[in-house]
Amino acid sequence: MTSRVDGPLKVTGRAKYGADNTFPGMAYGYVVVSTIAHGEIEAMDVAAAESAPGVLGVYSPFFPLDLRPVTTPLFGETWVPLQDKEVVYYGQPIGLVLAETYEQARDAAMTVAVSYHRRPARTSLEAGLPSAEEAPPGRDGSPSTLSVLAPGVESIEDALAASPVVVEATYRTPTQNHAAMEPHSAVAVWDDDGLTMYSGNQGTNLQVMELAGALDTDVSSVHSVNPFVGGAFGGKGRTSVAAFLAAAAAKTLDRAVKVVLSREQVFTATATRAATVQKIALGAAQDGSLIAVRHDSWCSTAMDRSFVEPTSYATSREWYATQNLAISQKMVPLNIPLTTFMRAPGEAPGSFALESAMDELAVALNMDPIELRLRNDSTAPPGKDLMWSSKHLDECFRIGAARFGWANRSPQGHTDGDWLVGVGTATAMFPAIRFPASVEVTLHADDTAAVATSGADPGTGLLTVLSLVAGESLDIAPDRVTPRLGDSALPPGGLSGGSTATASAGSAIMIAAAQVINDLVALASSPGAPFEGKEVSYADGRVLAQGQEMTFGELLRAMNLPSIAATGSSAPGEELTKHSFSSFGAQFCEVRVHKWTREVRVSRMLGVFDAGRIINDQTARSQLIGGMIWGVSAALHEGLEFEDNGRLANGDFASYLLPVNADIPDVDVHFVQYPDTLHNDVGAKGIGEIGMVGMTAAVANAIYNATGIRVRHTPITIEDLLD
Amino acid sequence: MRPFDLTAPATVETALASPGTFLAGGTTLVDLMKLNVLTPQHVLDINDLPLRGIDTSDGLRIGALERMSDIARHPGVYPVVSRALLLSASQQLRNMASIGGNLLQRTRCGYFRDVAMPCNKRGPGSGCPAVSGANRMHAVLGTSEACVATHASDVAVALVALDAEIRLVGAEGSRTVPLAEFYRLPGEHPEVENDLRPGELITEIVVPRLDWAHRSTYVKVRDRQSYEFALCSAAVALDIQDARVVDARVAVGGVATRPWRLPQVERALRGVAATEANFEAAAALAADGATPLPGNSFKVSLLKRTVVRALIEGSRS
Is the pTM of this model over 0.95? Predict the structure, then answer.
């Protein structure tokens, strides 16, 4: 098995992240943030800061850096700082202090005194529910409300009324921060060719587009370098405030500038996952067949209304066979930090609600929760003609049940000394998507190869996957292939988002590799070449003809060429008119709840996934384990708390809890490998996000099994389980 | 963090003669300096002072500069002390933090740590946002309108249960103070957390000999299994003979503004059979006088449950 190719660099500290770059004469910026949630900045007293040691400049809405709002196809409008005096959330960037050292900048920033004209702030999702707005149509044009009714059924309410068994409940999930290990940071350098930006992101081309727009310059004069990213999860899709400010400040000062957000600033000055409220009603026949599914969703959104967490669309819309379906999505604009994509946006909080509700239905039916799910296994999304291209959810549950010992489950859990023990399960799904991608494959005269595209590997394993797919496509060992990512000068592809990178870049690699082999073969038999006029073939890294053979390196050397390269491009197409595509999985979890003090400890976890072909077992397993752990984190630990004034009560790592090693048992991951070549030629579907989906509900369902207490919000903490 | 001078006195005498803030492990001081909560101009690194040694020959004597991790793994240290230390903070912090510094960590909450917010400890009279704000982690015992922050030390709870004393040295000489009396209630002056006099230094922690305290334990209930403060904790030592409780020590943490001894629970335990029912009856008294806030009313129930669990586990130890 191939190990993660970037592993040795990372564990020895040689991987160079954005903020690791340092240049002669570099200045340091420290961001100033607001301490109100809504109002107008009346004045900023920067006199002390300007005269502090080492300070080079203090920028604010009164003395702004030159930036303009920017709109891109993927993200819509992206906000840029310092352009107006409006404050719309607590912790909003409102200033930048530049100094000779980081400490001088930070020290001076502390002296900036801000006065505000305050306005009332709306910070509570619950309080805002009565005035919720319809969500805008989804990216695919789907409306904010949708229903699929069986012939003759007038309304979802009628369908529910006609259902022998109905469960109905409201579920709540909190705002979350991506909490990536690498804080948002940027190093900006200008020269005659324009700007070079070193700043962790999920796709250099996206960053180039946003920076070029904000700086009112051409994309050809912005170069984004991003070889390593310390975690992103959707939080580094948009260009960060640090990058906008560093870019504009470096231009103004005519010096390299580094801006790094403090951890506390990352909690407010980047973006978050929206909080949700979800009302679900499930109606079923006595045999468990779903007659009606109603899923109404509300989410918080920032005042710019730029992101909706689509919980009902991402789950109930597609997950189960049901005769009748009605979903809706509303949003509540609040004076809170920006909302954006976070790992499994929609699916993660949506599956907590839907899969909790399915567990409640199983209890109401006195039915095994796995049996209930398999009873409603679908061959296509409800109301759609396009069948799933490849679906083995039933096998995931069957294998999972056997591996986990599900047969030993008691509907009332069991006790082990002072501990109450329970098990839970949930379905996981995440759509299989791919994006257009271009990849360059190069054969070198030293018999090595290179594969390059502009996207990012924020810890996912994409570098390793590139080398494996390229090695396979070139019929050479993968350790002879050097993968490159994270440079906007490379062909555009491999964006890290939507669990798409392997399918997208992998398909392009196959095309590029086939092309470069064709070109090599043509070269070999061209006039004056070693195989002139012969019928040449290629295998095992060699060109062959009539008993004669040369490695591609030997051929290139013989022809005095350093290398030969080809670029391949792929994009989704016709397949979208033929099938529906998704990854599937079955999540299992065992918890122990202390009889007296009610702590929950997760004691066993298993995920069985149907995600198409797995290119590299090690990195895929790590992806799934990470997602499953995040599911536990959402279930038991994570949640941002807004105070009435919009301040985060727990905006740091001391109080925004993530699980530590002691909280997580060994995690078992198993793949059923069915390459989905109807989706793409590589046969891989997404694995980046599905690991998180369903696990939070599996934990909550296990807690119910152990204690008989149904908790319909996250995180589930001790007080939820006390008398 | 503001610029400061750093010096490292080599003797206790020089340290006492120098104005400034003492730095031992630095795990609290440096953290609060980074946040601009503390802005000392002069910092005195006291790590060269000869305040070391762990002696278990007659009770327990610990030099104030001994690291938490070294004390925790020293043979012969009472289990309740060792467990309280091992359940504190993280391994990295335990490797750095001194026992003297641990006892002097600030009684604090998130508002104390945020200089953009009022806090009666940082700015006497400025107000307490916790009373009406996020107060799930806060105290239910020993609170005042001025402050509801908890004292976060685990080992202090164990030491108070064992009647520990601390030796202090200052310009006016040395003195010995029972640890339980050293800590003050917040009252109207939460900025004063203990009886430490200006320039005074803890030199040693002394736990009187208590042979039966080798049957003791520390239970810490929290939102994750490591590197997190207690929602509630309990230190328990039990003298059980012929299945009856002859004597008991019980103190709790995570629920009070200082390490909180429970004499009424100890009294209720003395002389009764060591049964779960009797432990539950005694623990029912644990929250007497509690004044819960909207966010932490669950701590009243959790406190009793934690004491029961600690008594059960202590009796098995």
Answer: yes
